[in-house]
Amino acid sequence: MDENRIRILFERVRNGNYSQQDIQELNEWYHNLNAGGQNLKKWFAEAGGEEMLADRLYDSFGERLEKDNRKFNFSKLIKAAAILTVLFGIGLAIYLSQQKSQQMVAKKSIIPINPAQKTARLTLDDGSMVNVKDLAQGTTKLAGAMLEKTADGSLIYKINGLQYGKEVRYNTITTPRAGQFEVILPDGTHVWLNAASSLKFPLKFQGTERVVTLQGEGYFEVARNAKMPFKVLSGIQTVTVLGTHFNIKAYQGEQNISTTLFEGSVNVKNNKTAEYTLLKPGHQADLNVNNSGITVSNADLDQALSWKNGYFIFENQDVKAIMTLISRWYDVDVEYHITSAERFGGTFSRSTDLKELLKNLESLGKTRFQLKERKVIVSN
Question: Which domain holds residue 129?
């Protein structure tokens, strides 16, 4: 068989457009090559390949083939990645490229997926957006907003020296998945935002009430002002306070809006039905967004604030509910291959890398977690 025909056959194999007849021809060529006292290294060099490449090819697979010549099955060789594609320069380039790609994938798969970091995007009153990490430490004026970036990366809004008149200007702070943030509003109210959350607020509270809008989850320590109640709008819910500490969890797509009170008192109102309830410390109100009912129960304060304190606390929660929290905190997607949702309990640090956390969860039950780049495959 002439050299040009061999090249054509290998090119067909490389492209996947080969027939059984092509395989048979290559099989016969290989056995004739050995029967004539040649080997792959020698043939490749004589066919015009560089000696260094010939040595590399022979060292990688040629010697192995010759040791088992009688049992050699060329169709199996074709199925083995890269052996046939490396016999010519174009094939070798593809082979090396594949090997490099595989190595990169392997390296990527073992890179730790870190937990949420302090980061947020600031949307100004004029619609422009600023990444908070790009702001210099100290006081800055942006689109009418006077704010200070602290040494730990938090923001403090100030009202001194700003003249707004009756005009109301707003800023919005948004955390991405795998992000969290801390801000002090112009009235001195302290807010911590969980991952994938946003808070819209005026640059100066005016009139008879202080109103902000929350999507996602936030913990509030409201500065007391008896003449100007503080209101948090979250979907169909409004929480009204004078000065107190509470947590609201109101992610879009979730069935409940949960409000947990730590101290003081809050009024939780359903905007659809006008139903309301007055919470006492240590209680939690769950507003079902589907049937609009409000349920009040004793709260697990440690669990409600575990995200702010750096922990996951699971108490007999099913794996899907747990993975919702994990996907948000680590910015990963989740794929399920399960017949039933196993339940878990335990306390885990939010500062650990994702691989270690999943390993700990696996040790508690039968559910298995496979991490592929930024996707977790859940199976049982």
Answer: 117-304
Residues 254 and 173 occupy one common structural domain: yes
Cα–Cα distance, 134 to 131 (Å, whole number)? 6
The residue-averaged pLDDT of 352-366 equals 92
* pLDDT score recorded for residue 221: 97
Both 273 and 234 in a single domain? yes
Chain segment 276-286, per-residue pLDDT in tens: 999 999 999 99
338 with 354, same domain: the answer is: yes
pTM of the model: 0.70
Rounded Cα distance, 154 and 185, in Å: 11
